[in-house]
Each structure stands twice: as C-alpha cells, then as structure tokens.
Amino acid sequence: MRKALLARYIAGRLALGLPVFLGVVTIVFVVVRVLPGDPAAAALGQYASQDAVQALRERLGLDRPLPVQYGQYLAALARGDLGRSLINGEPVRGEIAHNLPYTLHLTLLAMAFGIVLGVPTGVLAALTRNRLPDSIGRILSLLGLSAPAYYLGILLILLFAIQLRLFPAIGAGEPGDAVDALRHLVLPAGTLGLVMAAAVARVTRSTVLNTLGQDFVRTARAKGLRSHAVILRHTLRAALIPIVSLAGWWAIGLIGDSVTTEIVFARPGLGSLMVGAMLQRDYTSLQSVMVVYTAFVVLINLAADVAYGVVDPRVRY
Amino acid sequence: MRPDRHGTPRTGPGGGLTRRRLLQAAVAAGLAGPGLAERLARGAAAPALAAAPGSMLRFGQAAADLGTADPHYASGTQDRALVDMIYNGLLRFAPGDSSVIEPDLAVELPRPQVVGGKQVWTFRLRPGVLWHPSEKVPAYELSSEDVVYSLEKAADRSRSAYSAQYQGMTFQAVDPRTVAVTLDTPVSTNLFYPLVANYSGGFIVSKRAVEAYGLDGIKTRPVGTGPFEAQRYSPKDRFTLVANPRYFRGAPRLGGVDYRYMADLFSREAGLRGGELDAIYGDKDDAWITRMQATAGSRVDIFGVGESTVLYFNTSVPPLDRKEVRQAIAYALSREQFLALAGRKASAVQDAPLAPFLPGALTEKEVAARGLDYRTDVARARRLLAEAGVQGGLAFECVTSQLRDYQTPYESLQAQLGAIGIKLGLRVVDHATFHALIRKNTNPLVIYIAFRPNAEIYLRSFYHSASTVVTGAHPDTNFIHYAAVDALIDRARAETNAARQVALWKDAQVKILEDMVAYPMYYTNQVYARTAVVDYGHPLRSEISLYPGIDETTRLRRG
Description:
Chain A contains twelve helices and no strands. By secondary structure, chain A is an all-alpha fold.
C-alpha cells in the first residue's frame, strides 16, 4: 500500500516538475537570445569579416525567426537531442556526459565531507552548550557560512597546494587514474564540504539541543541507558530528520557553488561547461546545461521528500 | 509488506526503498561514477600515440575552451597557438621572430612573375612531408592537390573567416609538387608572403581529412603536418597533443603538449607555482609580472607582437564630426596616464596609428616632427572646444567590455575627459556583447585593442570606408566612418615597390593624425610565465601567434 502511494506520489511530483522544467527551458531559450552577443561572431572572433559572420549565422540557423528556432529546439529536446555546440560542433550530449561525472563526484564527496564533519561538530557543540567547544564550533560554523566558496578555495590552494604541496591545485587528474582523481578532489570537495559542514553543524546543534529536552530522551535516561546510547540511538536519530530534509537544499546549493569551485580549481564539470558556454555565446550548450541543472533541482527536491519519509516513519504520502 | 518495529509498513522488500537500500544505492552510484568518467574521458578520441607524462609540456592558456581548431577560423589566442603547433604554411614566420619569413612546406621563398598582366607566384613543395595519421585518414604525403584545396578553402567565405584577404587569387596544381598562385592585381612580397605563411588562411589543411571529417569535424579533429598531432580533446578542459615522430624537421624533443584551458589567472598561477604546469599565459599588470619574476624557479617572458590600444572617434556622432572637437579631446588626454594603468613592463607609448614594430609605421620622430604627437595640453584643449562652441555640456554614453584591458582605459578616459568638462557615461557589458554593440555603431568613442599582421590589413580594417561598421561594403572595424585615406590605402596595396608602398602607408597615417580620427595610446606585448625547466628552443622577440611558439626544438630540462 505504502509502495503504491509512494509511486503515485513520485509520479505526481514528476508531473508537477514538467511545467517547471518547460518554464525554465523557455526562459533560458529567450534570455540567451535577448543578450546582445552573437554566437557566430563569438565563434569566428574579432578578425572575421561581417560576411563570414553572416555566412556562419545562416549555416547555424540563427537567421531563422525565433519561434521557428524555439519549435525546432523543443522538438529536438523531446527526442533527447541536445544539439551540437555552436562553437566546436561537438554533440552537447557528449559534452554533458563527459562533464557530469566530474560535478557529481565533487558534490557527492563534498556532501559526504560536510555531513561527516558537520554532524559530529554540531552534536559536540550541543552537548557542550555554552562551553568552549560550543563557542569554537559556533565561531567556525559562522566563518564557514560567511566565506564564499571561491574565497575558501583560494585559501586552501595557497596553503595546501602551493605552500605545503600536499594536494594538487588544479584539474581533475589523469583519466583512468582513480587515486590521482581522488587527490585532485580533496581540495575542491574540501572547499564545498567546509561550507556545507558549517551549515550542517548549526542545524545539528539546534536540533540536538531541541531533542535533548524531549520526553523520550528523558525516559531513555531514566531507564538507565548509557549516555552515548542515549545520544546515538535516540537523540541523534530523531535529530537527523530535519538534517535529511535540508540535505536536498544543501545539495542544490552545492551544485550552485560547484560552478565557482570548478573555475577556481580549473576542473572540468557542468559549471565549467556552463561558464565557457556563456562566454562563447554557445546557445545550445548553455541551454542544455541549464536543462540538466533544472532536472537536478527537480529530482533532488523529489529525492529529499522521499528520503524524508524514509527516515521519518510518521510521514505519509 | 513487512512491518517495522513501529508497525509501519516498510517500502523495502521486493525492490522497495529502505534506508539501507538508499545508502547502498548512493555508494554504488559513487563507485560507478569514476568508472563512467574514465570511460567517457578515454572515449573522447582514440589516442594515436602515447607520450611519457614527464616529457609533456603542461601549458595553461587563458581561455575557457577551444574555439575552433580549424585554422581558417582560428582567431582567439588559444586557437592560434593550438593550430600553430599542428599545422604548417607554405612559408612561416621564423620561430621567435615574426619579422623574418622563411620557407616552411615550400622549399624556397618564391619570386613573382608577371604573366599576361597577372602576377604569378610558384611554390615548389618539400618532398616527403606526411600528414598526421587519424582514425579516418591514414598518413599520406602532402601534395599540390592539398595546397590548392586549402587555399581555395581559405578564400571561400563559407569555409573561412579570412576569405576577404584571398579575393582576386586563383590557385593551380602545376604538378604533384608545384603550386601556382595567380593574382589579378600584383602585390608586394610584404603583402603576399604573410598570406601564405603559417597564420590564419595560410595554414595548409589536408584535403582528405577535411572531406572525411567535414567542416564541423575538423574543429576538434585537426589533421596537420606540424610537430605535434592531436590526440584527445576534452571539452572545457584540455587538448592533448603528442609529438609527431615523422615531422619533416625531425622528431620533437617533447613527448607532447598538454594544452589546458584555464580562464582564471589565479588557477594558472597556482598551477605553475604548485608544479602542475610548466608554462602559462600571464598577466600584463606590472605587479603580477614583478611578483612572478620574484618567484623562485619561475621566469617571465615579455615579447612581441604587441597589440595596439587606440581610441577611435565616431565621426557620425556630432560633435565628433568636427575636427576641432576631436583634436581638443586628443590634447586633453595623456598617454602617460593610460600607460601608468596598463603597466610599463609590458606596454609602451604608441604615437602613430600603426604600432612601431609594423613595417610602414610612422616613427616617433616622424610624428613629432610634424607636430602630430598631440602631447597633453589641457589649455589648448579647452581653447579648441571654445572655438568649436561646444564648451560645457558635452556628454557621451559608451559601453565598455568587462575585461580589465578595456574597462581600465575607458575609466581613465572618463576621468581625463572630466578635466575639460566632458562627461563620459560608461555601461559595462561582457566582452562578446561589447564587440557586438560597437559593430552596431553604438559607441561615439571606441577603444579597441588589436594586432594585425601588416599595415595593409590594419589600415584597411580600421580606416578604409569599405570596412565601416554597419554601412560599409564589407563591414569590419572602421568605427570612425572615415573615407579620407581610401585612395592611399588602395594605392599602397597595388604598389609592388616596397619603399613606395611604405611611403604611401605613412602618408595615410599622417592624414589620419591630421584629421585626428584616431588617438593612438599604447601597445602591449605578450606576457607568459614558465618554470626554469622550459626551454622554448628559440629566442623570444616576437611571435605572430601571440604565444611563445612551441615546436620541435622546445624541451624540458628536468633532472
């Protein structure tokens, strides 16, 4: 029964996501064309004659009326065809397939880092409320929330890559070398993870504090359970519910921050792809990356809602 | 459905969702990801050759991505440098010194002959030059058929960005190793050699490769005859080149070039200082150059060719149609102030429309002798404005690129014009938008930074009426709506005597300065940094491709 309800719930949410998806696609399509830059001129560079630019515009179909271009774009999108880059002629689907795993690795590792660092820090802060560890934790989390990811990234590069030379500063490592790839992930994932850890620690602290005052915790203590059992089995478990529900938002935030992080660390990924497409007025690549980002937001929100039900048995779909 | 301890049905068994399953799925996705990434990264193109990582030159270029590897469209610095390593021309600019032209795929520099009133240049090709092997086209020997096909492509507006420079030319394969180029109108060697050298339309492409891959295909799968061949292109990341062991000048000393696209200066600098890059595109700012020069183990190279920064007056916008107003503005400006912001280590004052390194440029002395250097004289500027009856209340609105190279001189211009009561409003837009807008005649005052390979192209692009934005026969970069030097430019183009040609170019520049339609500000050289182990293999005076020139002589002196 619950399974059927869940399936219906997911289907409903996906159906609701479609208009959102279409809306974003339309907005992106219009906005990139309203901007004054010309992709043909950008592709040919400043030395090209107007004749050459016009010839390329015709070849790319940019001289066609906007509604015609829009119709063709939607029809292709419905077939799963994301088109070809206006700049280098490569299939955009291939470019996204190439870059997507880099962004996924970065955000997943950053999330893991953020949770692994943030949850214990929050718990420790809550258990030592208004004492030194709590104050230190709160100051650090405030700093983490205040520092933009790119700024934190620069600091980490200066310290760990240039001064100490412990980790590489740029790139994603040699393709096929998993260890090298992981080494290249440490600093960028650490950058994003620290920002997320700050947020996680603050939420964890407040939810743990709130939970510690609940009756079931008092009951658990009254039963004579050891302190760590009370915290791990009862307090933390209940405190995880708001953390999991917020994980979706954090994930979306991480994907946003990954754009600047990929630029600072010169990593391939969707962010680099998007920024490059913007600079080069590569409409098709830009639209397609935005489509993927939109799909991510819709799916992550859905996953967060589903996960909320998984961690909290009281939730009904 | 099995109830849990609280009596609530799980969504788990038989494919349902449990916390454990959710965790397992997440871990599985994480593990699957790297494998997928590796497969995709490897699959971008089949490697032809493998290079030892230690012998790879790791180069950080200031760009977000490849524009195109089709040399007949390559215009950004990142593309010009890339195609320079892959392709050859019939002739070439000598590595490290672009003022010298020498044979490349041709065995000698041709001399022109006049046949039936037309000028004919005959090239004999080097024997045994092989095209890089590729997935679709195995290596084969260069022939006159390739050269004719390539030059015809360069002259075709639908297949080249540089077609305008090749109009009035016909190309003929005389025999498999001889090519004749016939010009309807004779030109001097000054003008002809650069057109068939390793730059822009002069790069020779493989007929079979272009036909096999198509125009879109060769944007990312270049097939040339140069010292390095394309191995793999990773979008928004890098282009990996490997040494061409069959290169006609001998196998390169490097194993290859890992050509990284890195738009952010900090990232490039971090890569160099962290030991992950060997050479990078630098910054022209004095402070950056000083810092890198002081960094242990790094070297900074500053070399030509320089890019000229010039202020153009749009004479279609009143009162800039009046010479006294333009001269007043010129006298109000200070090149020293512009230069102080541009940086004195990489830039120098430019008094003439053409930069001093271009053959045909007026020298500083020649400009000063004619009283056309427009040294700063604010009192004179005010007097000229008063005589023109526009004292006070003059205001202009301009767009400027967000790039510092543009925004800084525009802001300096704003401040300097303010001293004589002229208000300059600035709207900052992204670089591509700036270029689009100024070509739509939006700016009364256009600051433009450019290099052109010779005086003819420079003067024709910026001062010939045919190049006038929007209204010209072939709209290009004549932002000033000017036609007064058309005859001089046309006569110079048709002049085959080099000395007389130079004299005509100088006459055109004098007229431009007398009319003050353009105020030359400064020119800026190229700045690159490298680690001490990099030896480019040649001195660095000037490189027309705007990078240090990586060829078969370049090496890494590690260990």
